[in-house]
Amino acid sequence: MSAQGPGEGLDAVVVGGGIGGLAAALAVARAGMRVLVLERAERFAEIGAGIQIAPNGLHALDRLGVGDEVRSLAVHMSELRFMDGVTGEHVTSVPLTEGYRRRFGNPYVVVHRAELHAALLAACRSDPAVELRSGCAVAGYENGPATATVRTAAGERLTARIVIGADGLHSAIRRQLVGDGEPRVSGITVYRAVVPMERVPEAERLLTAVTWWAGPGCHFVHYPIAGGKYLNMAASSADGATEALAGVPATQALVEREMKALGEGAQRLMALGEDWRSWVLVDRPPVPGWTDGRTTLLGDAAHPMLHYAAQGACQSLEDAVVLGDLLERGDAELPALLAEYNARRRRRTAEIQDVSRLSIGLWHPSDEAAKERNRALAALSPEQLHGHLAWMHGARDFTDTDTAPVRDGAST
Fold first, then answer.
1. 205-210 — which CB contacts under 8 Å span 24+ positions?
2. CATH code of the domain in which 178 resides
3. Is 375 contained in some domain?
4. Is residue 402 very low, low, confident or very high in pLDDT (cuts 50, 70, 90)?
5. H-assigned helices in 14-149
6. Which domain holds residue 43?
7. How many CB atoms neighbour CB 376 within 10 A?
8. Could you tell me which residues come within 8 angstroms of residue 104 by beta carbon, excluding any fewer than 6 positions away?
9. Which residues are catalytic?
10. Is the model's pLDDT at 332 over the cut of 80?
11. How many Å apart are CA 157 and CA 46, to the nearest integer?
12. What is the pLDDT of residues 67-113, one digit of tens each?
């Protein structure tokens, strides 16, 4: 391999150097293949703040060889805490301690997105089968009988046995492969900020809890990141936004106006926010097929979802593991293996896409509907709450056999 130049003798080209793309590269390399990762940005980095990783995501990270490192970086949660954001009532909590960890085989953790990305990036850099190239935008792909070729925006052609499009929500590979246009705008804007934990009143730090404050047409989520040094905050408003925006600065006054329905408890924490930025949430409806011959999609390029089930990154990691397992069979019928990967993953990811959108109904009802929601949630035992999450959090093989969601709305 040392005699080969950059990009020569490739088995796979991965388009996109985010969490999903790096996970795919590790999985492909572990299948004995030489892989090139193309990132359009000038350097490999991850933007954003906190990210939640359920046990299924940690199982996938274990399979990719970085689970222990991520667990050591992460803050381990003891509860998912659901509050009525108007009255301040603590409605229920999903316990995440002994019983949960025993049932699902891993903790529920939160990390900074950059921490997770850095762990995957370091693993890729230490693997001689993985080549990384930044500053390389991709325009499209071509399939041949024995190879697939990526066309870069600069006019370069890179050929390998397979191409994996992990280039996110606005994937150039998906644009050609699926051709379903722009993402679907949700009509919800989320405002995000990170606050040093030392500024948070000690009684309200909740260092091992993910806390939701639900209100009419809005809700507020917060949890610690970076080993508890910071509080990650996200405030969502169903404002009817019709244009997709990302990372746009927002004033404290705007956040307060959009979240005015929430009560004192949530307001005290949001008042600590500085340097708010806003995103209009988008996703896509599930599609049955995201594979074309020797080219396939992975992660948000294949099945982008709203973040309300906290499964976007976990599903990218699951994709990578399933794809890598199949590629270990050998290269005799690579198009068939990519089609099988698609078939094994499409139902589970579609269910989670749907649940992520339907769960808006859990966060945003008002008046009597909110009271009924509170009564229904409060009536569930810890075992019942765990049972509603089991199909997502308890997954081990990451295929349709894991998918059996509860249909009464409580699974969200």
1. 205/231, 206/81, 207/75, 208/75, 208/76, 208/77, 208/78, 208/79, 209/77, 209/78, 209/79, 209/80, 209/81, 209/93, 210/52, 210/77, 210/79, 210/80, 210/81, 210/110
2. 3.50.50.60
3. no
4. low
5. 19-30, 55-64, 67-73, 98-104, 113-125
6. 12-48+113-182+285-355
7. 15
8. 54, 55, 56, 386, 390, 393, 394
9. 223
10. no
11. 26
12. 999 999 999 999 999 999 999 999 999 999 999 999 999 999 999 99
- Beta-carbon contacts of residue 204 (< 8 Å; ≥ 6 apart): 268, 269
Asked whether 259 and 273 are in contact (CB, 8 A), the reply is no
Asked whether the beta carbons of 302 and 319 are under 8 A apart, the reply is: yes
Strand, helix or coil for residue 14:
strand
Specify the pLDDT at position 7: 52
**Which residue bears the tokens 């896509």?**
284
Higher pLDDT, 209 or 5: 209
Residue type, 172: A
Domain count, the chain: 1
Query: Is the separation of the CB atoms in 128 and 241 below 8 Å?
Result: no
- Coil vs helix vs strand at 150: strand
Please give the mean pLDDT across all residues of the chain: 93
Token pair belonging to 140: 């499209």
